[in-house]
Design goal:
Nucleotidyltransferase, domain 5
Length: 155
């Protein structure tokens, strides 16, 4: 089986055809991602009265070469933007937790602050005060929700 080799010199017709095909593929991927974000944000807003999110410095996170592609692929900023306008539209509360809130470092059981957990390699840790074992992300999400509820009560 032989395949025909297409020569693509910059500026040639084949180069422009390939460039157009590639642009269509990228546009389709972007549309699929945006559709998912719209559907997921609508589902979250419809199912919950309060949504608490951590304000993340996405630009700073993109400086980490190991995570940059994954972070930019999920469109966090766009997702928060969609949640914000839909929360207002549906009359829900969207509470943004400060960037410097130590969500993954605090034990959600007793409140102990473990500074060693700043290292992203540590995925699970045991609280020296109460002995509870925490998954970093689940613990952070519980702490963010608790902080969001505190802020909601205060306002």
């Amino acid at each position: 089986m032989t395949s025909k080799k297409i020569i693509r010199e910059k500026g040639s017709n084949n180069w422009y055809k390939t460039k157009k095909k590639l642009a269509k593929v990228h546009e389709k991927i972007a549309n699929i991602r945006l559709d998912f974000l719209h559907k997921f944000s609508t589902k979250l807003i419809e199912e919950n009265q309060l949504i608490a999110v951590e304000t993340l410095e996405v630009k700073n996170m993109l400086k980490n070469s190991n995570l940059a592609k994954s972070i930019s692929d999920v469109c966090w900023s766009k997702f928060i933007e969609l949640l914000t306008y839909k929360a207002k539209w549906y009359g829900r509360d969207l509470i943004k937790i400060d960037t410097f809130f130590a969500s993954s470092q605090l034990c959600n059981n007793c409140g102990y602050k473990n500074k060693e957990v700043k290292d992203l390699k540590i995925r699970n840790w045991k609280c020296p005060e109460c002995g509870k074992v925490h998954d970093r992300d689940i613990n952070a999400s519980k702490n963010i929700l608790d902080e969001g509820l505190k802020i909601q009560k205060a306002s």
